[in-house]
Amino acid sequence: NSLSAHILEQSSIGYSFDIFNVINKEDESSKWYALEIDLFEKYQSDTVYEVTHGFVEFDERFFLLSQKWLNDSEIKKLTMTPDTDENDRIAWYESLKHREDYYIKGILADDVPIGAVGIKHINRVSGTGEYWGYIGEKSYIGKGIGKEMMAAMYATAYALGLNRLTLKVADFNIRACRLYEKQGFVETAREDHVIVMEKILNV
Q1: What gap in Å lies between CA 154 and CA 34, rounded to an integer?
Q2: Which of 18, 27, 35, 90 is least enclosed by beta carbons within 10 angstroms?
Q3: Contact at 8 Å (CB) between 13 and 4?
Q4: What is the pTM for the complete model shown?
């Protein structure tokens, strides 16, 4: 959900989304829907709500882990991550709280931080944004989490009023290319080893 804390113990305001995919039995076409649930006010509760699987605040723990993940030679190549110095990375992390063009979440699985996902270059006027995401803990790759990541970002795009998502992927990242194609992304451009893809959202 949208709340920054894993445990809801104080008064806070936020919202969450239930997302589901409806498939037409006749032509097998599908359409994603998102149900927004607003939490207007939540006071201290007798119940502790702890998130062990899902998408949570990209806090300092995820930031430090992301530096380890993206310095792994294989992940760095697949994500096309450029070389950056520590000061630039810290400045980027500190800028997140003020930016409206960048959405980011940490990914938890079995209460273990495993990666990050988000939308960048958000433009609410044109209704566009660029999807990105990666799993840094390699033991969780190939377990269907990529589909969950994309479904969560469709719901986020819906909430932001976006109608089109783009992404960039290395042409040698076959697993990711296949996933994006199955999700309805189509190639719109190609330069060197980088494929640009686009998906029109039903919002």
Answers
A1: 8
A2: 27
A3: no
A4: 0.75
